[in-house]
Amino acid sequence: MSARRRLSLGERLVIAAPYLWIGAFFLAPMLLIAKISVSQSVLARPPYRPIFEPSDSLAAIWAKAQTFSFDAYRALMSDTLYLESYLSSLTIAAVSTLIALIIAYPFALAMARAPERLRPMLIGLAAAPFWTSFLIRVYAWIALLKDDGLINNALMALGLISAPLQMFATTGAVVVGIVYSYLPFMLLPLYAALERQDPSLREAAADLGASPAQVFLRVTLPLSREGVIAGALLVFIPAVGEFVIPDLLGGSETLMIGRTLWNDFFSNHDWPAASAAAIALVAVLMIPLLLWERARLADEDDAR
Amino acid sequence: MSAAASWARRATLFIGFVFLYAPIVILAVMSFNASRLVSVWGGFSTKWYAALLENEQLLHSAKISLAAALTSATIATLLGLLAAISLARFGRFRTRMLFFGAVHAPLVLPEVVLGLALLTCFVAFGVGRGFVTLVIGHVTLTMCFTTVAILAALRDSDPALEEAAMDLGATPLGAFIRVALPQIAPAIVTAYLLAFTLSLDDLVIASFATGPGATTLPMRIYSQVRLGVSPQINAISTLLLALVAVALGLAALVSSGRARRDGKW
């Protein structure tokens, strides 16, 4: 199985449609932004100087390749905005993932330990928000977090604070929004991992003299590792590239890479810079995915 | 289990569900508030719903979004099925890694990157943006989710069953349709619903891929929301939430009815 094989005619017919689709609407656009990332930014429409024409001969393409501008990439490294946005996105995503894990773990545990006939209903209720509009769930938090919003009003009515707390348009609000929106993604794999566990393992540990805390730390938690990893990835990866949440709940000081790209593209019209950043992101994100698939295929070979 | 543990469990569940549902419920309650202000209860009113019915722009966008979701979910499910078959059953063909990477990329890439790439492509080739480009964008976005959902089910189904059917004289296509397809049918339905929901809800890809005349509902909601909380947006949000609640309730009824019939209860 390790030799690369050719596809039969029937197989080619099956793969043709999806291959052509991603070729035309994913690979070609990616090549195009790779090209734009080495063009010069100009004030025009489209706002970059085209490099290749379809009619160019190979020699002409080579001659033009000499004039490639790597300004956009150099700017990526020297202008710290992109680097800062990326690091800040990673931090915000990591903090949100951790908080989501801390909230979701006891929640998933309580569902997994609930009476068996209640479990399908509980997990259904926990998963239901996933099917509702993401935009609407983020929007719902604006009414809660605003200066004259419900949380501030409630706190002032109780006399706990005298002036409204600034919660809306802060990085903290972005973290709340991410935790809330992505909680079902954390809950489901955790629940699946916890529900599968054999209760007799915990009973055995308790019979051997382990305290409830020891049972949790040495049996339940290690056995749920896969669920924790899956949940963390499902929250962390989309959170890094998130645009809607920082844009609606964040303040002007909240830097996130998705928002920086959007602004550079739509407001600053700096397509080469945005393209260079996008290409860098593709490289950073795709390499782990491909390595993971290669490892999975190697496992499959071992299993044979 | 001890009584204390049982109480702790109930309290955790209660707090967890309050966190998940309170913001949505508050939004729904606010949509019936006669006052414009979040902080003032001006009495019960359905005037914001009445105003919705007269908002031609919003209604038009809702139609666009629905049409785009139906079309793109259908195409994305078909393409996802073909891509999943290729990845699950064709072994290590040449350029498999390229295919795998390109199919899965939108799962890990920020939507902004995909949208930006599509828009530059449409501009470079002089493609006018509108409903067609919107559908193209949504198919490209959702195809990776449909592929992953169907691929997981195909990996779980036993290829030996199909081989047995072929030994008994079925063609590869016939064996697939009569043996594998019934096994993965639930995953295909899930894939379709997933693609439909993602398309209906998408703001980022739509903002890049669509043009004047094909403004989607999330884009309208977004531009309103940027200006602040609006009672009409509360009303349309509540309608959308109610729609999902009804659909999920029906799905739960159907699946519990089926479980009862199969004697699982």
Topology (SSEs and partners):
The complex is a heterodimer of chains A (304) and B (265).
Chain A: H1 9-37, H2 58-65, H3 71-78, H4 80-112, H5 119-131, H6 134-145, H7 150-157, H8 171-196, H9 199-207, H10 212-223, H11 225-240, H12 244-249, H13 257-266, H14 271-303
Chain B: H1 3-30, H2 47-54, H3 56-89, H4 96-108, H5 111-124, H6 131-156, H7 159-167, H8 172-201, H9 204-209, H10 217-225, H11 231-261
Helix pairs in contact in B: 1-11, 2-11, 3-6, 3-8, 4-6, 6-8, 7-8
What is the number of E strands of chain A? 0
Largest β-sheet summary of chain A: none
Helix content of chain A: over 70%
CATH A-level architecture of chain B: Orthogonal Bundle
Which fold does the CATH topology of the domain at 81-269 in chain A refer to?
MetI-like fold
Beta fraction of chain A? under 5%
Strand residues, percent of chain B = under 5%
Gross morphology of chain B is: globular
- By secondary-structure content and strand pairing, the structural class of chain A works out as mainly alpha
What CATH architecture of the domain at 81-269 in chain A would you give? Orthogonal Bundle
CATH class of the domain at 81-269 in chain A: Mainly Alpha
Low-confidence spans of chain B: pLDDT under 50, at least 5 residues?
A: none
| Average pLDDT of chain A | 86
Query: What is the count of DSSP helices of chain A, taking H or I runs of 4+ residues?
Result: 14
The N- and C-terminal alpha carbons of chain B lie at a distance of: 24 Å
Number of helices of chain B: 11
Q: What count of structural domains of chain B?
A: 1
Description of the structure:
Chain A is mostly helical and 304 residues long. Chain A has a domain at 81-269: Orthogonal Bundle (MetI-like fold). Chain A has helices at residues 9-37, 58-65, 71-78, 80-112, 119-131, 134-145, 150-157, 171-196, 199-207, 212-223, 225-240, 244-249, 257-266, 271-303. In chain A, helix 8 runs antiparallel to helix 11. By secondary structure, chain B is an all-alpha fold. Chain B has a single domain (56-261), classed as MetI-like fold, CATH 1.10.3720. In chain B, 78% of the residues lie in helices and 0% in strands. Chain B contains 11 helices and no strands. Chain B has helices at residues 3-30, 47-54, 56-89, 96-108, 111-124, 131-156, 159-167, 172-201, 204-209, 217-225, 231-261. In chain B, helix 1 crosses helix 11, helix 3 (56-89) runs antiparallel to helix 8 and helix 6 packs across helix 8 (172-201). Chain B is globular, with a radius of gyration of 23 Å. The relative contact order of chain B is 0.13. The model of chain B has no long low-confidence stretch (mean pLDDT 89). The chains are: A mainly alpha (304), B mainly alpha (265).
